[in-house]
Amino acid sequence: MDSDVCQVYEDEIQSLKEEIKLLAEKYEDSQQESTFFSDEEILMSIKSFQRELWGESEGHESAVDLKAELESLETCLSFLMKLTGIQFTGHSKKTLERTRDKTVRKHRLSGNCRSLSFQLEFQLLEMQNKGNVSAAITDLSITMEPRGNSDLDKFVSSEKRGSLLTFFRSLSSYAEWYEHRRFTFLHFKEKYPDIVTLPEGLLGDYILLRNPKTSGFELMIVWKIHIDEEGKPTPVLDLLTKVPKPVLGQKMATIENAPTRFRSMLLLVGIEEAIENLVNIFSSER
């Protein structure tokens, strides 16, 4: 009889422990819901944690190991941010469903990759089965600024069908080419202000070359960023011509071959040098 009573008490205690654990997890989630952190707040939290940890652990050998591990993690994080260009500026989560075996949380992430800002929303499904934990991401939603850019809109549309890991891997490579194009356009606009124009600004995907000596004579350098089925971005450049009839009649063969020669120059000398050579040839035309 006594044994049965003890067993009942033990079962009740175990049940209470599990209930307390669930309540503690719910409280933790409620504290983190709809909370966004700036870079300054994150840094202040890390420093505050360091002060508390070293103050409370002073005199213990483990404090040295913990400090070294934290510094190592900070170094790795800094290296990854420099390598990928990705930096997170905000995060929030909300628990949508919780049972003993399943937890569903909705996450919101915001950040930037080089000059591109992004916001993500997704649901994380965590399943527990005999001590094993599995996780799956569903309902991925991506918002990026600036919109209205054809390459960027295509990138977002394609990545919505992929995984979160694929998105970040593709975003890093795409943002690198996006920045490269923007800086290249700015360079030639500043170097040749009388010849180079940017009808759509630095966020556009083409530039115009206008020869002030020949009215109506224009060359358009189109620079797209193609994204394949695996999410890999690749620059694709081409040359389009707009030539007045008098000029077209005089130099028909040269103008018709210009796009082909431009593509050949791209393969031989690269993007910047090919555009530089084209600008020099174009500006000398009369």
Protein described:
With 286 residues, the protein is α+β, with helices and mostly antiparallel strands. Helix content is 52%, strand content 28%. It has eight helices and eight strands. Strand 5 and strand 6 (206-210) form a beta hairpin. Helix 7 packs antiparallel against helix 8 (271-284). The longest helix has 31 residues, at 2-32. The N and C termini lie far apart (110 Å).
Instruction: Please mark out the parts with pLDDT under 50 across 5 or more consecutive residues, or reply none.
Output: 56-61
Q: What is the percent of helical residues?
A: 40-55%
Mean pLDDT, as a whole number?
A: 77
Structural class: alpha+beta
| Main sheet: strands, sense, barrel | 4 strands, antiparallel
Which percent range describes the beta-strand content?
Answer: 25-35%
SSE string: HHHEEEEHHEEEEHHH
| C-alpha-based Rg, rounded | 29 Å
Please list the strands of the largest sheet in the order they lie side by side: 1-2-3-4
Task: Describe this protein with a few key phrases.
286 residues; four-stranded antiparallel sheet; single chain; 28% strand; alpha+beta
Any chance you could write out the topology, listing elements then pairs?
Layout: H1 2-32, H2 39-56, H3 61-84, E1 86-98, E2 102-113, E3 116-129, E4 132-145, H4 150-159, H5 164-191, E5 196-197, E6 206-210, E7 218-227, E8 233-242, H6 245-250, H7 252-269, H8 271-284
Antiparallel strand pairs: 1-2, 2-3, 3-4, 5-6, 6-7, 7-8
Helix pairs in contact: 7-8
